[in-house]
Specification:
The chain is α/β, with parallel strands linked by helices. The chain contains eleven helices and 14 strands. The chain has two domains: 219 residues, P-loop containing nucleotide triphosphate hydrolases (Rossmann fold); 66 residues, Alpha-Beta Plaits, CATH 3.30.70. It is 32% helix and 28% strand. It has a six-stranded mixed sheet, sandwiched between helices. Helix 5 packs parallel to helix 6. Bound molecules: adenosine-5'-triphosphate.
C-alpha cells in the first residue's frame, strides 16, 4: 500500500484558459515517489501547460497543488532546489561546451552531482569538450536531460524528451530514463508517443482537450479494452470503403488503404473477414495480427488517432 508521504505531487482540479481555449479543464492526479508517471496525449492536449504550471513557469487560473505533502501557492526556491526540468525547446549557448553548459546550470543550485559522472551517464563522454552548436539532435536532448539532473533532484520533469529523434537516439534516451528510475528518481514525463509511455511508464494518464480521459498502468488501460488482438490489413478497392457491409463488420479505416478489426475471437473474425472478401470480391493485402496497445485505448475513447 502507498503511504500518504509517498505522494510527491498532488494536483486537484487544475484549470487554465488562454482566451477561449480551455487548455486545462479541471485535472487531478497524484505522482508517487520513485515512479515514472506519464501524461500521454496528442498535440495541444494540455501536457506542457500542466508541466509548466508544476515547474512554476505558468500560473493556473484555479486548482490546488501539493508538493511533498504541503499545499503550495507559489512554487518557491525550496521546491525548485528539489526539481529538475527538461524543457521542450531548451535554449543553450552555442559557443559553450557540454561541460561548460552543465557548470553554468550547476551554479544555480546549492547542491548537485558530479558532472563528469553525469556526462558519462548520458553517453556524452566523447562530447565533453564539444560546443553545443556541434551536437546532434539526440545529443542535445541528452544534454537537456543532463541539465535536469545537475542538482540531483527528487522529481524530474521531462517534456517530450524524444520528440524529433530517430529510433536509435530515442532508445538511448529511454535507457537513460530507465536508469534514472533505478536511481530512485520520481519522473513526470509528457509524451505523444504511445510506445514511449508503454515502454517507460508505471502509470499513464491520458489527456485530451485539457481533461484526463483514462488512467492506470499500461496493462490496466489495455486490459480495459477487453480485446484479444487486432487484425490489420490493406484494401486497394476504394469503392467499398464506405460500404455498409464493411462498417457493420466492425472494420475500421485507420489510414490510407489501411483497416483494422479489434477482436475478442481471432479465428471467428478472420474467417468472417475472408467470407466477406469472397462475397464482396475484394482482395486483402498485407494482413498482420498485433496485440492491442495504448493507441487503441485512445482511439476507442475519442474516435481519433493519437497521431492526428
Ligand atoms: P504539444 O505536444 O503540442 O506541446 P501540449 O499537450 O503540450 O501540446 P499545450 O502546449 O499545453 O499542449 O497547449 C494546450 C492548449 O493551449 C493548446 O490549444 C494550445 O494552443 C494552447 N496554448 C498553450 N499555450 C498558450 C499560450 N501561451 N497562449 C495561447 N494559447 C496557448
Amino acid at each position: 500500500m502507498r503511504e500518504k508521504n509517498d505522494v510527491v505531487i498532488r494536483v486537484v482540479d487544475l484549470r487554465k484558459s488562454y482566451g477561449d481555449v480551455k487548455a486545462l479543464d479541471g485535472i487531478s492526479f497524484e505522482i508517487y515517489k520513485g515512479e515514472i508517471f506519464a501524461l500521454l496525449g496528442p498535440n495541444g492536449a494540455g501536457k506542457t501547460t500542466t508541466m509548466e504550471i508544476l515547474e512554476g513557469l505558468r500560473k493556473p487560473d484555479s486548482g490546488e497543488i501539493y508538493y511533498f505533502g504541503e499545499k503550495v501557492k507559489v512554487i518557491g526556491s525550496e521546491i525548485k532546489e528539489r526539481m529538475g526540468v527538461q524543457l521542450q525547446d531548451p535554449a543553450f549557448f552555442d559557443q559553450l561546451t557540454v561541460k561548460e553548459t552543465l557548470e553554468i546550470f550547476r551554479g544555480l543550485y546549492k547542491k548537485g552531482r558530479d558532472l563528469n559522472e553525469l556526462i558519462n551517464m548520458m553517453g556524452l563522454g566523447e562530447k565533453i569538450k564539444s560546443k553545443v552548436k556541434n551536437l546532434s539532435g539526440g545529443q542535445l536532448k541528452r544534454l537537456a536531460i543532463a541539465v535536469a539532473l545537475v542538482n540531483d533532484p527528487d522529481i524530474v520533469f521531462l517534456d517530450e524528451p524524444t520528440t524529433g529523434l530517430d529510433p536509435q537516439a530515442r532508445r538511448a534516451v529511454w535507457d537513460i530514463i530507465s536508469q534514472m528510475r533505478s536511481e530512485g528518481k520520481t519522473i513526470f514525463l509528457t509524451t505523444h508517443y504511445m510506445e514511449e509511455a508503454e515502454k517507460l511508464a508505471d502509470r499513464v494518464f491520458i489527456i485530451d482537450h485539457g481533461r484526463i480521459i483514462a488512467k492506470g498502468t499500461v496493462d490496466e488501460l489495455i486490459g480495459s479494452l477487453n480485446m484479444e488482438s487486432v487484425i490489420v490489413f490493406e484494401l486497394r478497392e476504394n469503392s467499398i470503403e464506405n460500404s455498409k457491409e464493411l462498417k457493420s463488420s466492425g472494420i475500421l479505416k485507420v489510414g490510407e488503404n489501411r483497416y483494422e478489426i479489434s477482436t475478442k475471437n481471432l479465428e471467428d473474425d478472420l474467417s468472417r473477414l475472408f467470407d466477406l472478401s469472397k462475397s464482396m470480391g475484394f482482395d486483402i493485402e498485407n494482413l498482420t495480427i498485433r496485440k492491442p496497445n495504448l493507441e487503441d485505448v485512445f482511439l476507442k475513447l475519442t474516435g481519433r488517432s493519437l497521431r492526428d
